[in-house]
Design a protein that fits this description.
By secondary structure, the protein is an alpha/beta fold. The protein is 32% helix and 19% strand. It contains six helices and nine strands; from the N terminus they run βαββαββββαβαβαα. The chain has a seven-stranded mixed β-sheet, with helices on both faces. A two-stranded antiparallel ribbon has the order 6-7.
Length: 230
């Protein structure tokens, strides 16, 4: 009998950045067995138009025992374990197709105003910190596509009658991303900087260890609940 699937998805690069740690960790996870679950790791587009259809399709295709989505939180100083998603979109940065809702518009016309993540956020935070990596629970996943992703996954699992725990992990910048931005700003001549570049970052190895620890925690929760789609 094959292991139950743990679905982990991560956002592709956006906001003009050449990389995204949420995508870079995925090849190091795909196919691995963590806490008794075989991980299926998939990159997802930074697309306001496509995610509401794509994410439910992934749930239907893989029938996961748990879902964990990953994204980049611009300027975050620790790994953030998200607990809530709201039914509102207001983008400070356009998506990769140019969409930039700015009014807090509802993206799920018939959906509730908010949805609570169904993973044990405290257990995920503790699992990450046990690896010596700073993490904290967060009560607001923002109003960009990370928020939309969490909300949509929760709705899809509910519609499928799944007991699968689901949550969202926000990752900080990589050091090399900060270097890239500093060098890019250096090419701007005498232009005044529009934002400070002395930003927090976290190494790739630490971020990968954090994601693996989170996968272990949510995998153990899924095993206790026996959650899969039916």
């Amino acid at each position: 009998m094959s292991e139950p699937v743990g679905l982990i998805t991560g956002s592709e690069p956006f906001a003009g950045l050449p990389t995204n740690p949420a995508q870079l960790v995925l090849p190091h996870l795909d196919g691995q067995v963590v806490a008794g679950h075989r991980i299926v790791a998939i990159a997802t587009p930074v697309s306001y138009a496509r995610l509401p259809t794509l994410l439910p399709e992934l749930v239907a295709r893989h029938r996961p025992a748990y879902v964990m989505a990953l994204g980049l939180a611009l300027g975050a100083n620790v790994v953030r374990v998200e607990k809530f998603a709201i039914n509102a979109a207001a983008f400070g940065v356009a998506d990769n197709e140019g969409a930039r809702p700015a009014s807090g518009e509802r993206f799920a016309a018939d959906g509730p105003d908010g949805r609570a993540a169904t993973w044990d956020a405290a257990a995920v935070v503790e699992a990450i910190m046990a690896q010596g990596i700073p993490a904290r629970a967060s009560y607001h996943a923002g109003t960009h596509l990370c928020n939309l992703t969490l909300y949509t996954y929760l709705a899809a699992l509910e519609a499928a009658g799944a007991a699968a725990p689901c949550g969202f992990l926000h990752l900080p910048y990589l050091p090399e991303q900060i270097v890239w931005m500093i060098r890019r700003r250096g090419d701007a001549g005498d232009s005044a900087p529009t934002a400070p570049l002395d930003l927090p970052s976290m190494s790739f190895d630490m971020q990968l260890a954090a994601v693996r620890a989170a996968a272990g925690a949510i995998g153990r929760q899924a095993a206790q609940q026996g959650g899969t789609t039916q």
